[in-house]
Amino acid sequence: MAGERRVRPGRAHPLWLAFVLHRVSGLALALFLPLHFWVLSYALTAPDQLDEFLLFAEQPLVKFAEFGLVFLLAVHAFGGLRLMALEWLPWSAPQKTLAAGAVGAALFLSGTFFLQVI
Amino acid sequence: MPEPLDDLDVSVWRGTASGGAYQSFVVPTMESQTILDVVSWIQQYADPTLTYRFACRVGMCGSCAMMVNGRPRWTCRTHVRKVLQGRKVQIGPLRNLPVIKDLATDMDPFFDKWVAAGGAHRPSATRHEPIPPVDPAQPARVTASAGIECINCAICYAGCDTVTGNSDYLGPAALQRAWTLLNDAKHDGRAAIFDAVSGHGGCHNCHSMGSCTAFCPNDLDPMSAIAGLKRETAKRFWRRGGS
Ligand code: FES
User: Fold this and answer.
1) Which residue has better confidence, A1 or B107?
2) Of B14, B78, B85, B101, which one has the greatest count of Cβ atoms within 10 A?
3) Which residue of chain A comes nearest to B71, CA vs CA?
4) DSSP letters spanning A68-108
């Protein structure tokens, strides 16, 4: 078997990890979306059950899971932007670093602002 | 007097296209020892039947690439102490290529894809015409020059998971070569390159995993070259009205 015969290549470099993160977050979101729509459909078909579910969703554990969901969404969105920039903008390495730095700084500032507001 | 160093515990792939296994060797440590030195020591002092490939031993010819502790590397320029895990080193034939024997792989698919990607140079003028001047600072020439130091070692090819998943994929080296020629003012086969790299095994298979760029021993950037091909083929597609 090819897998036993050869060593698997070491892949733990940032570009490959970014690729995996993008794929995995995309898959997870794809699994989540049908569930999301299914619950939403209760608003029309069974409002009582929806209310029950929303009550259940107030639990800390579910809140924490929601945080994971937002994280996945953010990772996937930025992964997509990264990919589009990578493939469509022929930037030099310093330009890429600057762009990534600018996005990082903007996220940090707006995040701090957001935390103060809520 | 330098401290005597422990011996190396080296496991080397032995076998042919039909199968094989890793074999262990104890190899004495030497100063400034490269992985190619280790393989040569085994062949000279432990087992003369070990098959491997090398030529220049100075990182010029690209013939000595192997998998070293799971990463494709040019073995003549890879120092043992840089890749040692404990006292262990595992050395195998390049991934994604058929094995001929032991550490020697059949490079034909790799070079066939170079040609298939339009990698053979087609001059735009004959020897009877004046040589057109090329300005080294011109943007297209800068882009072309970025990829010309490729030594065809197939390290990028061995490191690419897209090649593993799709045996028709031309791979990073061939596509980078195509990108270089596409930007070369003296090349006369642009349409052929476009056709070759936008087809079934072409540049759009690439998932930008970037192992080619991360592993290239000459610090080239095939991933960005492939991104360039993606842009140019897409622009051409839209310019022609999507056909
Ligand atoms: S032997 Fe020539 S590159 Fe290693």
Assistant:
1) B107
2) B78
3) A9
4) HHHHHHHHHHHHHHHHHHHHH----HHHHHHHHHHHHHHHH
